[in-house]
Write a structure and sequence with these properties.
Elements lengths: L15 E5 L10 H9 L2 E4 L5 H4 L7 E4 L2 E2 L2 E2 L3 H13 L4 E5 L9 H10 L4 E4 L4 H9 L11 E6 L11 H4 L4 E6 L5 H10 L7 E6 L7 E6 L3 H6 L16 E4 L12
Parallel strand pairs: 1-6, 1-7, 2-3, 2-6, 8-9
Antiparallel strand pairs: 4-5, 9-12, 10-11, 10-12
């Protein structure tokens, strides 16, 4: 094991724990995540961490938002890493609290590398990633013998206004595709997946704030996805745009959904 990396339960002074907060509901926190919060001197959290989870930070513990939203980065990644190192060098027990799981589109790997390079002891506490939490909460599986033999997680985050994904691989039959941060790219996602051979009738679930009181779920088809996100084809929701953060789950498993859509 690399020097400085630990899997111990205790959070020691001068160290950092990268902690997954799960999809939103406080009772989906792991026990280890909860114990880390109770030991923390300072918590640096993302915007996606729910108020219900933050309520478990003990009174008197410094709780700082270092989040990013919709491409508006109030904190640069380098500054977040520097702040964690600064707090740890001051002898504090630091919890870096991240929505979902730190190692699934959470930049946890980059933060771990930066901390270890700076000589800061670090541990990682996994969390339930948004896709898994959303599917379970809504009553449909991500894999199913009759529907999907594989499940792929990809990021739909635009870089330089482009979305470069392996569309042929994503359009394979009997597969569930989960796209994180994909709302701004739905026109491209719909067009490119259909061009790669995925039927326009393929069911799609759009999920916002999964497992939280503010949860919203919209069910549509691949061809209808852009219109629903724009708000021009959603019945009672007509005219109301679907904004980030939102998760896209694409595949016939969505037809098994048990919850009532928004």
């Amino acid at each position: 094991m690399t020097a400085g990396f630990t899997s111990t339960v205790s959070l020691t002074p001068g160290s950092v724990a990268l902690v997954g907060a799960g999809p939103g509901a406080a009772d989906l926190l792991t026990l280890r995540a909860w114990h880390c919060l109770q030991q923390a001197d300072v918590v640096l959290h993302d915007l996606l961490v729910s108020p219900e989870v933050l309520a478990h930070v003990p009174e008197g513990v410094a709780c700082l938002s270092v989040g990013k939203a919709g491409g508006r980065h109030s904190w640069a990644q380098a500054d977040i890493c520097a702040l964690m190192a600064e707090k740890a060098r001051a002898g504090l027990r630091v919890v870096r609290l991240k929505g979902g799981d730190p190692f699934i589109f959470g930049r946890g790997g980059e933060e771990m590398e930066a901390l270890l390079s700076a000589g800061i002891p670090v541990q990682v506490v996994p969390g339930i990633t948004a896709a898994v939490g959303a599917a379970a909460w809504l009553g449909f599986p991500l894999t199913h013998r009759d529907h999907a033999h594989s499940c792929v997680f990809v990021t739909g985050h635009l870089q330089h206004d482009q979305l470069a994904l392996n569309w042929t691989a994503l359009a394979q039959p009997r597969q569930t595709v989960v796209i994180y941060m994909g709302v701004t790219g739905v026109e491209t996602i719909s067009t490119q997946l259909q061009a790669a051979g995925l039927s326009g009738d393929t069911p799609v679930a759009i999920v916002r704030y999964a497992t939280c009181p503010a949860q919203e779920v919209f069910v549509t088809s691949l061809s209808g996805l852009p219109g629903v996100v724009r708000g021009d084809s959603r019945g009672e929701g007509r005219g109301r745009e679907v904004r980030a953060p939102a998760l896209l789950i694409i595949g016939t498993v969505v037809s098994l959904l048990q919850a009532t859509p928004s």
